User: Which sequence fits this backbone?
C-alpha cells in the first residue's frame, strides 16, 4: 500500500529542531579507546581487519587504529592495520593516539612510513585544573609540550588532531591558550574530550559554541571533533548536541566499549543520525559488526541493548503482538516495523519477532503457527495459550512443538 512516515506518524521532533549540521563525520575508536576497558579482550589482528571492513561498509570515514608507542606488539598491529587500509584502498582516514611527547609521535611517523599512507597524529594532554593538580603540571610546561609535539609531527609530514583530556572541566582561558598554541604549530583538528562523561547536552552545546566563536572563529581549515564518555548515561545525547552546536566529527566505539562505563556508542549514533536524516548510510551490516566485537572482544551485549540487542524487535505481549500482526495483514511491512517500534527493523537488517509467553494473547499464537506453516486451529491456539499463561517465561520452540504433537 506504500505507507509513509508523514501519513501515519506525527513527528514532534521536527518542531523547533535546529537545522541539520553543515557536515557530519564519525571516527571509530573501537580498536584504540575501546580496548582500554579492563573487561575487554584485545582481539587478534584478523578480527581487527574485519572491523576495518565493517567500518568501510558502514561509511565510517575515520578510525583510530591504535596507540603505537604503547608496546612493540601494538605498534606492529597498528602498522598492519594501516597497511591493510593502503593495500585494499579502504575509504578510511586512519589516526593514532600519542601523548604530547615527540617519542610517542615518532611511533606514528614509523607507522605512516611503513604503510605508505598519511596517518593523523591524535596528540593529547590533560587540561582541567583537577588533572593539572594531580599531575603537578605547570601551564607553561604544558604549552611547551604542546608546541614540541605538534611541531615535531608537522615537521615529519603528519597532520595533527590536538586533544585536551577533560576539556569539559577546563577553564576557558586555559583552553584558548592550549589550542591556540596547537593551531599556531599546525594542528588542523581540535578535539573536545568529555573524558569522564561530565557534561549534559546543554554543556556540550555551550563548549562547542565557545570553540566555534573563540578558538576556530571563521577559519574553514579547522575542524572540531567531539569525544565523549558515558559516565552519566548521556554520551549519545551529548554527541548529538555537539553536532547541533557545530562539531564536525563525533568519536565513538561499537557497543560503547571503553574505560569505566564506556564511550559514546557508535552504533547508536549511526542509527540516530540516519533517522534524523543527517546521514544517508546503509546500516544492514551494523548488527554483524556489533556481534563481531561482542564475540571477539568479550564486549557485553545486553538483551535490551538498543537496536542490536536480542529483544530490540522482539515481543511476547499480547497487545503489541496484535498490533504488529494486524499491521502485517495490511500487506506493508512499513506499518509492522513501526507500529510498536521507534526504529524500523529493516534499517539494520532485522525483522519483528513475536514470541509466546504469560503476557501473550491469541494473536501471538496465531502468528507463531502461521509463520511456521501450521494451521492456527482454535483449539490448538487455546491449548498453547493456556500453557503459556501458566508459565513464568516465554515458551521455547521445543515446548510449543511438544504441545502441538500432544494435540
Assistant:
Amino acid at each position: 500500500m506504500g505507507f509513509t512516515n508523514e501519513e501515519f506518524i506525527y513527528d514532534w521532533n521536527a518542531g523547533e529542531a535546529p537545522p541539520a549540521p553543515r557536515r557530519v563525520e564519525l571516527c571509530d575508536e573501537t580498536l584504540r579507546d575501546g580496548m582500554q576497558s579492563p573487561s575487554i579482550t584485545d582481539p587478534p589482528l584478523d578480527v581487527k581487519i574485519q572491523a576495518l571492513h565493517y567500518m568501510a561498509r558502514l561509511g565510517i570515514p575515520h578510525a583510530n587504529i591504535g596507540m603505537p608507542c604503547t608496546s612493540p606488539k601494538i605498534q606492529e598491529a597498528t602498522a598492519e592495520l594501516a597497511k591493510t587500509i593502503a593495500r585494499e584502498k579502504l575509504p578510511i582516514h586512519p589516526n593514532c593516539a600519542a601523548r604530547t611527547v615527540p617519542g610517542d609521535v615518532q611511533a606514528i611517523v614509523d607507522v605512516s612510513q611503513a604503510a605508505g599512507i598519511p596517518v593523523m597524529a591524535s596528540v593529547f594532554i590533560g587540561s582541567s585544573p583537577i588533572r593539572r593538580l594531580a599531575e603537578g603540571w605547570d601551564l607553561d610546561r604544558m604549552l611547551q609540550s604542546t608546541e614540541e609535539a605538534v611541531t615535531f609531527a608537522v615537521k615529519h609530514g603528519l597532520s595533527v588532531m590536538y586533544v585536551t583530556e577533560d576539556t569539559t572541566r577546563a577553564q576557558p582561558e586555559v583552553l584558548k591558550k592550549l589550542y591556540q598554541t596547537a593551531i599556531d604549530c599546525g594542528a588542523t583538528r581540535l578535539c573536545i574530550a568529555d573524558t569522564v562523561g561530565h557534561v549534559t547536552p546543554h554543556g556540550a552545546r555551550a563548549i562547542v559554541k565557545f570553540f566555534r566563536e573563540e578558538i576556530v572563529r571563521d577559519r574553514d581549515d579547522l575542524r572540531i571533533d567531539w569525544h565523549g564518555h558515558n559516565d552519566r548515561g548521556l554520551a549519545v545525547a551529548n554527541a548529538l548536541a555537539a553536532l547541533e552546536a557545530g562539531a564536525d566529527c563525533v568519536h565513538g566505539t561499537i557497543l560503547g566499549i571503553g574505560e569505566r562505563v564506556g564511550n559514546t556508542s557508535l552504533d547508536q549514533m549511526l542509527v540516530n543520525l540516519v533517522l534524523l536524516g543527517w546521514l544517508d548510510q546503509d546500516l544492514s551490516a551494523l548488527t554483524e559488526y556489533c556481534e563481531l566485537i561482542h564475540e571477539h572482544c568479550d564486549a557485553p551485549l545486553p538483551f535490551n541493548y538498543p537496536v542490536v540487542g536480542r529483544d530490540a524487535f522482539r515481543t511476547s505481549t499480547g497487545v503489541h503482538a496484535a498490533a504488529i500482526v494486524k499491521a502485517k495483514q495490511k500487506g506493508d511491512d512499513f506499518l509492522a516495523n513501526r507500529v510498536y517500534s521507534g526504529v524500523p527493523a529493516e534499517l539494520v537488517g532485522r525483522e519483528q519477532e513475536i514470541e509466546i509467553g504469560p503476557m501473550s494473547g491469541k494473536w501471538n499464537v496465531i502468528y507463531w503457527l502461521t509463520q511456521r506453516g501450521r494451521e492456527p486451529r482454535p483449539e490448538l491456539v487455546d491449548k498453547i495459550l493456556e500453557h503459556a499463561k501458566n508459565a513464568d517465561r516465554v515458551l521455547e520452540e521445543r515446548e510449543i512443538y511438544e504441545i502441538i504433537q500432544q494435540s
